[in-house]
Amino acid sequence: MSYFITLEGPEGSGKTSHAKALAEHLRSLGWNVLHTREPGGTSIGDQIRDVLGSLENTAMRPSTEFLLFSASRAQHVEEVIRPHLEAGGVVVCDRYFDSSLAYQGHGHGLDLEALRQITRFATSGLTPELTLLLDLPAEDGLKRRQEGGSWNRLDAYALEFHRRVREGYLALATAEPERWVRIDALPAWEIVQNEIRAMTESRLAQEGGGE
Ligand code: TYD
Known about the structure:
By secondary structure, the chain is of the alpha/beta class. Helices cover 56% and strands 13% of the residues. Helix 3 (62-86) runs parallel beside helix 5 and helix 4 packs across helix 7 (159-175). It is globular, with a radius of gyration of 16 Å. The N and C termini lie close together (9 Å). Bound molecules: thymidine-5'-diphosphate.
Protein backbone atom coordinates (compact mmCIF):
# COMPACT_ATOMS: atom_id res chain seq x y z
CA MET A 1 0.00 0.00 0.00
CA SER A 2 1.42 3.38 -0.93
CA TYR A 3 0.93 6.31 1.43
CA PHE A 4 2.17 9.90 1.28
CA ILE A 5 2.70 11.80 4.56
CA THR A 6 3.97 15.37 4.87
CA LEU A 7 5.07 17.33 7.95
CA GLU A 8 4.47 21.06 7.97
CA GLY A 9 4.91 23.87 10.43
CA PRO A 10 6.53 27.21 11.15
CA GLU A 11 10.20 27.69 11.97
CA GLY A 12 11.42 25.84 15.03
CA SER A 13 8.50 23.42 15.18
CA GLY A 14 10.91 20.49 15.24
CA LYS A 15 9.57 19.02 11.99
CA THR A 16 12.93 17.83 10.80
CA SER A 17 13.77 15.65 13.79
CA HIS A 18 10.17 14.48 14.08
CA ALA A 19 10.03 13.46 10.41
CA LYS A 20 13.23 11.46 10.80
CA ALA A 21 12.03 9.73 13.97
CA LEU A 22 8.62 8.97 12.43
CA ALA A 23 10.27 7.42 9.36
CA GLU A 24 12.49 5.23 11.57
CA HIS A 25 9.53 4.18 13.67
CA LEU A 26 7.44 3.19 10.65
CA ARG A 27 10.39 1.21 9.29
CA SER A 28 10.64 -0.66 12.58
CA LEU A 29 6.99 -1.64 12.06
CA GLY A 30 7.89 -3.13 8.67
CA TRP A 31 6.87 -0.36 6.27
CA ASN A 32 9.01 0.46 3.25
CA VAL A 33 9.65 4.14 4.05
CA LEU A 34 11.34 6.87 2.09
CA HIS A 35 12.26 9.90 4.21
CA THR A 36 12.91 13.07 2.25
CA ARG A 37 12.67 16.86 2.54
CA GLU A 38 11.98 20.11 0.70
CA PRO A 39 13.61 22.18 -0.57
CA GLY A 40 16.08 19.52 -1.61
CA GLY A 41 15.64 15.79 -1.79
CA THR A 42 17.52 15.61 -5.10
CA SER A 43 20.90 16.86 -6.31
CA ILE A 44 19.21 19.60 -8.39
CA GLY A 45 16.94 20.44 -5.44
CA ASP A 46 19.94 20.79 -3.10
CA GLN A 47 21.52 23.30 -5.49
CA ILE A 48 18.25 25.28 -5.57
CA ARG A 49 18.11 25.08 -1.76
CA ASP A 50 21.53 26.78 -1.55
CA VAL A 51 20.31 29.67 -3.72
CA LEU A 52 17.13 30.01 -1.62
CA GLY A 53 18.91 29.91 1.73
CA SER A 54 21.91 32.11 0.93
CA LEU A 55 22.10 35.20 3.15
CA GLU A 56 23.58 37.07 0.14
CA ASN A 57 20.40 36.84 -1.89
CA THR A 58 18.63 39.76 -0.24
CA ALA A 59 17.27 40.88 -3.65
CA MET A 60 15.16 37.75 -4.06
CA ARG A 61 11.53 38.49 -4.89
CA PRO A 62 8.67 36.42 -3.44
CA SER A 63 7.64 35.25 -6.92
CA THR A 64 11.22 34.13 -7.67
CA GLU A 65 11.28 32.35 -4.34
CA PHE A 66 8.04 30.53 -5.13
CA LEU A 67 9.17 29.47 -8.61
CA LEU A 68 12.45 28.13 -7.24
CA PHE A 69 10.62 26.10 -4.60
CA SER A 70 8.28 24.84 -7.31
CA ALA A 71 11.16 23.90 -9.61
CA SER A 72 12.80 21.96 -6.82
CA ARG A 73 9.45 20.29 -6.07
CA ALA A 74 8.88 19.23 -9.69
CA GLN A 75 12.23 17.46 -9.73
CA HIS A 76 11.60 15.92 -6.32
CA VAL A 77 8.18 14.52 -7.26
CA GLU A 78 9.34 12.97 -10.52
CA GLU A 79 12.73 11.71 -9.43
CA VAL A 80 12.03 10.54 -5.89
CA ILE A 81 8.50 10.71 -4.48
CA ARG A 82 6.35 9.28 -7.25
CA PRO A 83 8.63 6.30 -8.01
CA HIS A 84 8.59 5.27 -4.33
CA LEU A 85 4.79 5.54 -4.13
CA GLU A 86 4.43 3.61 -7.38
CA ALA A 87 6.56 0.86 -5.86
CA GLY A 88 4.02 0.64 -3.03
CA GLY A 89 6.04 2.49 -0.38
CA VAL A 90 5.35 5.08 2.29
CA VAL A 91 6.84 8.56 1.81
CA VAL A 92 7.54 10.84 4.80
CA CYS A 93 8.34 14.31 3.46
CA ASP A 94 9.56 17.24 5.57
CA ARG A 95 7.66 20.18 3.92
CA TYR A 96 5.83 20.07 0.58
CA PHE A 97 3.55 22.41 -1.40
CA ASP A 98 1.66 23.57 1.71
CA SER A 99 4.89 25.34 2.75
CA SER A 100 4.63 27.43 -0.42
CA LEU A 101 0.97 28.22 0.25
CA ALA A 102 1.79 29.22 3.85
CA TYR A 103 5.08 31.13 3.27
CA GLN A 104 4.80 32.59 -0.24
CA GLY A 105 0.98 32.77 -0.22
CA HIS A 106 -0.10 33.75 3.30
CA GLY A 107 3.32 35.11 4.37
CA HIS A 108 4.23 37.20 1.30
CA GLY A 109 0.68 37.72 0.05
CA LEU A 110 1.07 36.09 -3.39
CA ASP A 111 -2.20 35.09 -5.03
CA LEU A 112 -3.15 31.69 -3.64
CA GLU A 113 -5.09 30.57 -6.71
CA ALA A 114 -2.10 31.29 -8.97
CA LEU A 115 0.17 29.38 -6.59
CA ARG A 116 -2.19 26.42 -6.61
CA GLN A 117 -2.24 26.32 -10.40
CA ILE A 118 1.53 26.34 -10.72
CA THR A 119 1.72 23.76 -7.94
CA ARG A 120 -0.65 21.47 -9.81
CA PHE A 121 1.63 21.74 -12.83
CA ALA A 122 4.81 21.18 -10.80
CA THR A 123 3.47 18.14 -8.92
CA SER A 124 1.05 16.82 -11.57
CA GLY A 125 -1.52 17.02 -8.79
CA LEU A 126 0.23 14.70 -6.33
CA THR A 127 -1.35 15.47 -2.93
CA PRO A 128 -0.46 13.89 0.44
CA GLU A 129 -2.92 11.54 2.11
CA LEU A 130 -1.95 12.91 5.54
CA THR A 131 -0.40 16.26 6.51
CA LEU A 132 0.74 16.76 10.10
CA LEU A 133 0.85 20.39 11.20
CA LEU A 134 3.35 20.90 14.03
CA ASP A 135 1.86 24.08 15.36
CA LEU A 136 3.36 26.67 17.68
CA PRO A 137 3.32 30.47 18.00
CA ALA A 138 5.80 32.29 15.73
CA GLU A 139 7.68 33.82 18.69
CA ASP A 140 8.39 30.44 20.29
CA GLY A 141 9.50 28.90 17.00
CA LEU A 142 11.91 31.71 16.09
CA LYS A 143 13.40 31.63 19.58
CA ARG A 144 14.10 27.92 19.20
CA ARG A 145 15.72 28.51 15.79
CA GLN A 146 17.99 31.25 17.10
CA GLU A 147 19.04 29.15 20.07
CA GLY A 148 19.64 26.19 17.73
CA GLY A 149 22.04 28.31 15.65
CA SER A 150 20.68 27.35 12.20
CA TRP A 151 19.52 30.80 11.11
CA ASN A 152 18.93 31.31 7.35
CA ARG A 153 17.69 34.04 4.99
CA LEU A 154 14.06 32.94 5.31
CA ASP A 155 14.18 32.89 9.12
CA ALA A 156 15.25 36.51 9.03
CA TYR A 157 11.91 37.75 7.68
CA ALA A 158 10.07 39.89 10.23
CA LEU A 159 8.05 38.41 13.08
CA GLU A 160 4.84 39.63 11.39
CA PHE A 161 5.67 37.49 8.38
CA HIS A 162 6.07 34.39 10.55
CA ARG A 163 2.80 35.16 12.30
CA ARG A 164 1.02 35.22 8.93
CA VAL A 165 2.67 31.92 8.04
CA ARG A 166 1.34 30.33 11.19
CA GLU A 167 -2.16 31.72 10.65
CA GLY A 168 -1.94 30.55 7.04
CA TYR A 169 -1.18 27.01 8.14
CA LEU A 170 -4.14 27.04 10.51
CA ALA A 171 -6.40 28.25 7.69
CA LEU A 172 -5.12 25.55 5.32
CA ALA A 173 -5.71 22.88 7.97
CA THR A 174 -9.23 24.11 8.68
CA ALA A 175 -10.12 24.13 4.98
CA GLU A 176 -9.15 20.47 4.48
CA PRO A 177 -9.81 18.69 7.78
CA GLU A 178 -9.76 15.20 6.27
CA ARG A 179 -6.12 15.61 5.16
CA TRP A 180 -4.67 17.73 8.01
CA VAL A 181 -4.02 16.89 11.65
CA ARG A 182 -2.88 19.68 13.97
CA ILE A 183 -0.41 18.70 16.65
CA ASP A 184 0.65 21.06 19.43
CA ALA A 185 4.44 21.35 19.07
CA LEU A 186 5.04 23.12 22.41
CA PRO A 187 5.17 20.09 24.77
CA ALA A 188 8.31 18.00 25.32
CA TRP A 189 9.73 16.32 22.19
CA GLU A 190 8.73 12.76 23.23
CA ILE A 191 5.13 13.78 23.84
CA VAL A 192 4.90 15.38 20.40
CA GLN A 193 6.58 12.39 18.75
CA ASN A 194 4.22 9.93 20.44
CA GLU A 195 1.23 11.87 19.19
CA ILE A 196 2.66 11.92 15.66
CA ARG A 197 3.20 8.16 15.76
CA ALA A 198 -0.25 7.41 17.16
CA MET A 199 -1.95 9.62 14.56
CA THR A 200 0.00 8.11 11.68
CA GLU A 201 -0.49 4.52 12.78
CA SER A 202 -4.22 5.00 13.11
CA ARG A 203 -4.43 6.54 9.62
CA LEU A 204 -2.38 3.72 8.11
CA ALA A 205 -4.60 1.17 9.82
CA GLN A 206 -7.73 2.91 8.47
CA GLU A 207 -6.29 2.66 4.99
CA GLY A 208 -6.25 -1.09 5.43
CA GLY A 209 -2.53 -1.22 6.08
CA GLY A 210 -0.38 -3.27 8.40
CA GLU A 211 2.66 -4.95 6.99
P1 TYD B 1 15.06 24.79 6.36
O1 TYD B 1 16.41 25.15 6.81
O2 TYD B 1 14.84 23.48 5.71
O3 TYD B 1 14.03 25.04 7.53
P2 TYD B 1 13.08 24.06 8.30
O4 TYD B 1 13.98 23.20 9.15
O5 TYD B 1 12.24 25.01 9.10
O6 TYD B 1 12.28 23.27 7.29
O7 TYD B 1 14.61 25.94 5.40
C1 TYD B 1 13.48 25.85 4.67
C2 TYD B 1 12.91 27.24 4.62
O8 TYD B 1 12.19 27.38 3.40
C3 TYD B 1 11.92 27.52 5.71
O9 TYD B 1 12.10 28.85 6.15
C4 TYD B 1 10.58 27.41 5.03
C5 TYD B 1 10.88 27.83 3.64
N1 TYD B 1 10.02 27.29 2.58
C6 TYD B 1 9.16 28.15 1.90
O10 TYD B 1 9.14 29.35 2.19
N2 TYD B 1 8.39 27.66 0.89
C7 TYD B 1 8.43 26.35 0.51
O11 TYD B 1 7.72 25.93 -0.41
C8 TYD B 1 9.32 25.46 1.23
C9 TYD B 1 9.40 24.02 0.86
C10 TYD B 1 10.09 25.98 2.25
